[in-house]
């Protein structure tokens, strides 16, 4: 829900709100005051969302051990499965194995989502680190 609101207001939704305020407000000064207040509340809300996301990442990093390393471990495990399927396919091509083994499309989709999520997660961690500097 919050992501939807953020996308709405970053993608021109604020212009829609501002136009509605212009139509409803009694005068320009009143309209500008309402617009400033709306923008201020949106900024406060966005700051709290960003802070909550940073806190989650920080707590995960501070947890140490398996709690901090589960994403790379899971990615390596599924990567190993894909490598296994690839090796089995090569063995079939050379006639060493009599059964063809193809990587299931669901596994490929899972790998794509995992790589994208891991990349975005690491990018988020780096952005939070840069923002704190």
TrEMBL record:
<feature type="transmembrane region" description="Helical">
    <location>
        <begin position="73"/>
        <end position="95"/>
    </location>
</feature>
<dbReference type="Pfam" id="PF11351">
    <property type="entry name" value="GTA_holin_3TM"/>
</dbReference>
<keyword id="KW-0812">Transmembrane</keyword>
<dbReference type="InterPro" id="IPR021497">
    <property type="entry name" value="GTA_holin_3TM"/>
</dbReference>
<keyword id="KW-1133">Transmembrane helix</keyword>
<protein>
    <submittedName>
        <fullName>Holin family protein</fullName>
    </submittedName>
</protein>
<keyword id="KW-0472">Membrane</keyword>
<feature type="transmembrane region" description="Helical">
    <location>
        <begin position="107"/>
        <end position="124"/>
    </location>
</feature>
